């Protein structure tokens, strides 16, 4: 909204400083500041409201130290994150940008699914919450929306470079003999096209093209892309949901992930930087840095109240939204293959549950008694059982997330 206002004032008035509203750097800074203020200032009022309505977490006794003391802590705090993301993006983002609209739709879509799950848990007193099948339907639905938008929108294209390799010989001036030779690859043309290509980390000038996997059939390629989008959204949102188990954990580890995605979006949407780094140039994707800034600010602001001892829990309203939005963001900038590295914490947490459950069922069937790999899953509960305090687990996971974020950025120079 304010973006269009600044644009209008710049074109129709002589007031100084109006162009500042068009710069991504200014709008990103404004978005992160506003999201922080919304989360911190209005967060306390939302917490008071949730307490008055007795919208508190019903804690199951898992035998963890200090666990039962958290009973009655307000939940559904993901509302704070959603508000702190949506409002700054509406104010400072370019709402005509297809990527921004897609991110807003994804945020509200996942927030609704997570909110419905929390509503059933709190008001219907059903600890299981929303039936898992309905969650999957919601995630599949979002995957179809994302895939169809990437397929059908004329605004979503990538720039492809055509190269020509030229050979040069260096000759001796006196004898005319070839002393040495070398070859140089030069860009001869650049075209803009719809594509199902995505970046492959660590491999220079190599991309995965879903069209090639389907034998060149364009329609099948996009259907395959939708399947991939559904898998990525489901996997990352559920991984984030499993990570949300101790105070501040999911919030903390998500901040580096979101910041790196914002940097990648900015670089991918900048024709000079993308060319220098030899990464895919995606026109208009740079606008996503506004969303990433607001998202990071919302997470940091929520951490103000969610750090130990937590004054509020995000519930599925927040955890499903965080994971799903990260997945959609990565799909928009064609970096979904980086997610296993960037979201390594989510991956390990999900694997710890699958391995624990699978090994328990296997040993029960084979020996008549179920055995466990970990003291408790997900992984962070294993460390709690070993006697580590919540803040130490949270900080160590945060440090690992920072390391994974740094390694993800390093892949830019390894291509």
Description:
This protein is mainly alpha-helical and 415 residues long. It has helices at residues 2-12, 24-52, 78-92, 98-123, 132-152, 210-213, 218-243, 249-268, 271-277, 288-306, 315-332, 339-342, 344-367, 379-385, 390-410; strands at 158-171, 178-193, 197-199, 207-209. It contains 15 helices and 4 strands. The strands form 2 sheets. The chain has a two-stranded antiparallel sheet with strand order 1-2. The chain has a two-stranded antiparallel sheet with strand order 3-4. Helix 2 packs antiparallel against helix 3 (78-92). It starts with a helix and ends in a 5-residue tail after the last helix. 44% of the residues are buried. The mean pLDDT is 87.
Q: Share of helix among residues?
A: 55-70%
Largest pleated sheet: 2 strands, antiparallel
Q: Which percent range describes the beta-strand content?
A: 5-15%
Quaternary structure classification? single chain
